[in-house]
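Human: Cast an eye over this sequence-structure pair and say how the chain folds.
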Amino acid sequence: MAAVLACGEGALLSHRSAVTLHELLRGGGAWIDVTVAGRRGVSRLGLRVHRPACLSHADRTMVRGIPCTSVPRSLLDLAQVASPRILERACDQADVLRVLDMNAVRELLARRKGHPGVRRLRAILEMGQVAENIPRTELEERFLARCRRTGLPRPAVNEWIAVAGEEIQVDFVWFKQRVIVETDGFGTHGTRQAFQRDRRRDQLLSLAGWRVVRFTWDEVTKEPGYVTGVVRELLASHAKSRPAAA
């Protein structure tokens, strides 16, 4: 808020700083990005001031009382300055939080054809359904990296499975072996509602013939050998359980 106020009336938190405020990324970097329409974009100590050619009413919003760029505009500005992987993660988190309004994004891309981030953001969104087959959290990334390093078969990531008339999205799944791994960070699984929801999901999946195992942050980061061993044994037990050929 101090950064926005320092830039005067009409200033908005923007770019990576706005994406962080929207909780689509962690940490906004050493600089604070502020957009000021119609003024010269001169940076000052700790601030990076942007002067866009166009800023509409739809590009503005308030988050926790701080004026900032909207989610679509924040993602478009992020596309100009961040790597594709960081942009992909932000888009994925926007989808997870249900704040990714694709109609608003399409309208913005059509309106701001000359923006340097248009091509990059469109490329990310056109790769397929956002949040599909890519890790959504640092914990998921660490688990997937562990699979790669130890030679475990690559699982499908954030896939939907239909069971008992419901569709359940799981973190990692090996379809052939019917094994599911869930990585549980306290931030998203530490509430009473999440605790109850997770148990019900596991029950439905188990009744449908899936084997579900959950790993915590500490297990993935501090006991990686144990995690690898459990997954490897679950995958191997599928082969052991198959009847021998006649």
Observations:
- Residues 224-241 form the longest helix (18 residues).
- The two ends are 73 Å apart (CA to CA).
- The longest strand covers residues 166-174.
- Residues 19 and 213 are 33 Å apart (CA to CA).
